[in-house]
């Protein structure tokens, strides 16, 4: 979903159609990408409502000279498969989450 010329929201769904791990406001996922043979990851805040578990919306703003943001905005298309971490960071009222598992999730991008 294009929000502005420099901002796009990527809707991530589980490849197998299952529900994604629950999250709380202010949490984020690491998005793993390979660009020109370079493997890297960047954290992106989940911008969708925590009340649903079928997708994560990740709103990406173009950063001048940004390696990953420019790739996501210019080259990622619907149906592309990406790997992300599970939700990370202590959300509001999340309590102590030191023992919460963080698992990798294979996701696909949808563009609504």
UniProtKB/TrEMBL annotation:
PROSITE patterns: FAD_FR
Cofactors demanded by this protein: FAD
InterPro entries, per the entry: Cbr1-like_FAD-bd_dom (IPR008333), FAD-bd_FR_type (IPR017927), MRET (IPR050415), Riboflavin_synthase-like_b-brl (IPR017938)
Coiled coil residues, start to end: none
Keywords in alphabetical order: 2Fe-2S, FAD, Flavoprotein, Iron, Iron-sulfur, Metal-binding, Oxidoreductase
Span of domain FAD-binding FR-type: 1-94
Protein name: FAD-binding oxidoreductase
Lineage, highest ranks first: Bacteria, Pseudomonadati, Pseudomonadota, Betaproteobacteria, Burkholderiales
């Amino acid at each position: 979903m294009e929000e502005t010329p420099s901002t796009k929201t990527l809707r991530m769904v589980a490849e197998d159609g299952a529900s994604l791990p629950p999250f709380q406001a202010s949490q984020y996922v690491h998005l793993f990408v390979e660009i020109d043979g370079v493997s890297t990851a960047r954290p992106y805040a989940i911008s969708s409502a925590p009340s649903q578990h079928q997708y994560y919306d990740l709103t990406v703003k173009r950063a001048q000279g940004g390696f990953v943001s420019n790739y996501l905005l210019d080259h990622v298309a619907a149906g592309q498969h990406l790997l992300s971490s599970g939700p990370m960071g202590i959300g509001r009222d999340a309590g102590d989450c030191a023992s919460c598992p963080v698992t990798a999730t294979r996701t696909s991008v949808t563009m609504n």
